[in-house]
Amino acid sequence: MKSNASQNVTLNLQTLPFHLGIIMDGNGRWAKKRLLNRVKGHEKGTQTVRSIVTVARELGIGMLTLYAFSTENWARPKIEVKALMMLLKKFIVSEREVFSKNDIRVNIIGQKHRLPKDVQKEIDITLDLTKNNDKMVLNLALSYGSREEITNAVKLIAKKIKSKEMDPNDITQDLISNHLYTKTMPDPDLIIRTSGENRLSNFLMWQAAYSEIYISETLWPDFSKDEFIEILKNYQKRDRRFGKVSCSTSNDG
Ligand code: FPP
User: Fold this and answer.
1) Strand pairing partners for 215?
2) Is 31 left (phi over 0), alpha (psi -120 to 50) or beta?
3) Of the residues 32, 36, 42, which should be mutated to test ligand 1's pocket, given the most ligand atoms within 8 Å of the CB?
């Protein structure tokens, strides 16, 4: 149960997470509970995407990464994959003017080349149209999986070593980060997962080393702006130590 006390705390717009990742889970269960086809859950989930992108932009979140389709999701029934690709394409086309108007830059992380050609084409148009926008980055994780991303990075680095462009001793954590799909992006400060599941499911596993995690019991299609704001307030109360001791317990202040 939510306490009134927590609802009365105001959100501090100066200390929002810069990079926020969301694992949008529970579309299928939302549909099942209503005796609907799973695709109806994804359709309703797309409406939630719209409203959360809008509120994230209004609040001033710098970067929002949405886990929209994983490398493992290709193994779902063909009809569901097709429906998800169709929804994605519709979203990317219908929202591109909104992104432009609101200064949102769209970026893709994942295996873009595996997506259907027509989806890739619409993505490219949206990427190009929004490339100079600088108020928020909307990262869509599509055909994304951390293990594939890390494997890909290892291959890129191995090729550079083979061609003598670099030496094995040049390999550092920063170098590995710079060969991931998220190169140049800061690590996520906060990762929200909906539907009560307690796992990362191959999402930003390298990047999430020190991310705060929040598990919401709400199924993604029911996830609201109000709950989103409550989660941000919860994040603001946390003490992020990154493996060190907190300032208040440290002797050297
Ligand atoms: C997980 O729910 C959700 C997905 C695999 C896809 C997420 C897609 C959307 C929210 C809609 C399209 C995206 C965009 C960006 C327009 P699930 O199907 O695994 O749910 P379940 O665990 O209840 O079965």
Assistant:
1) 193
2) alpha
3) 42
| 49 Cβ neighbours under 8 A, 6+ residues apart | 24, 66, 68, 91
* Residue 102 structure tokens: 């609101």
Fold of 16-145+188-236: Undecaprenyl pyrophosphate synthetase (3.40.1180)
Residue 25 catalytic?
yes
* Alpha carbons 212 and 165: distance in angstroms, whole number: 37
Whole-structure pTM value: 0.94
For 167-218, how does the pLDDT look when each residue is reduced to its tens digit (9 = 90+)?
Answer: 999 999 999 999 999 999 999 999 999 999 999 999 999 999 999 999 999 9
Residue 21 has a pLDDT of: 98
Q: Is the CB of 234 under 6 A from ligand 1?
A: no
Is the Cβ–Cβ distance between 209 and 173 less than 8 Å? no
